[in-house]
Amino acid sequence: MDKRNAIEANEIDTAEIPEFVYKSLARSLLPVIQKYYESDAGQRAFTEWKEKKGAEKSGTA
Questions:
Q1: Contact in structure between 47 and 56 (CB atoms under 8 Å)
Q2: Out of the domains of life, which is the source (predicted)?
Q3: Between vectors from CA 49 to CA 29 and to CA 54, what angle results, nearest 5°?
């Protein structure tokens, strides 16, 4: 399903969503995301992600 069909299937037009909704969502999610990446599990996941991206970029993955 391409992007256009996905939008039609969900009947969501993001242009109709006010910007304050996006900002409010970002303000509520940011502290949770920061806390995760400051944790040991988040640090490990980020390190693994960086290694994977580096391997993909160099063509060894």
A1: no
A2: Bacteria
A3: 135
Distance CA(49)–CA(26), nearest Å, equals: 23
**What per-residue confidence (pLDDT) applies to 11?**
73
CB 55 within 8 Å of CB 61:
yes
- 4: helix, strand or coil: helix
- Name residue, tokens 């409010």: 24
24-41 pLDDT tens trace:
999 999 999 999 999 999
Q: What is the pTM of this model?
A: 0.55
Burial class (CB in 10 A: 0-12, 13-18, 19+), 42: middle
Domain coordinates in residue numbering, the chain: 17-58
28: tokens are 């509520």
